[in-house]
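Q: Got a minute? One more chain.
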Amino acid sequence: MKFFLMACSFSSAFLFSQQTECGLQKSEFIDFPTVDKESISCIAKNSEKKATVFYTLASWCVPCVKHLPDALQLEKDFNTDVYVVLVEAEDDERIKRAINIVKRASQDAKILVLKNSVYKGGVKKRNSAFVKQITPKQFETIPDFSKFIVLNNQGEVVMVTNWKDYKEIDRKNRENVQQMLSHTVIPLLK
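A: Always. Here it is, folded:
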């Protein structure tokens, strides 16, 4: 029990440290920090890890919810931090459902929310603007959901996954999600 409490306090302290270093502000609507491309880069730069993973999630997106355990497992299996980035607006009623989905998967999950001031409109428009902004030129910009975004400890985006990374495999099959991660994300974490 002591170990669990220490781990929780370390996780909270780490997120608090990132908030302080990067100037992250909590949303006025929910009790989680809001982010944009620059603050995500800052979080990765201030990490002691080789790489940091940011996983996008919308409450109504079936693949997002289905792949969430795989995203969170990366933190346990590799020397990385994983942040779940909620794409619904801070004041959208669906954001509460998204938070509940993440908390059911892991009480210790690090949750971030896209800033309303930067990403305006409905969830698809917000996600599209974020994906366009975060995706480097060497990757195809596809504004789908359930993205694994990997940044190195210099704050540079080194991977943005999309549905094409699944190629011929069934995206709904958990084993196939592991196959996709093994050839896109996991090599960057080792």
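A: The beta strands are 25-26, 33-35, 51-57, 80-86, 110-114, 148-152, 157-160.
Q: Perfect, thanks.
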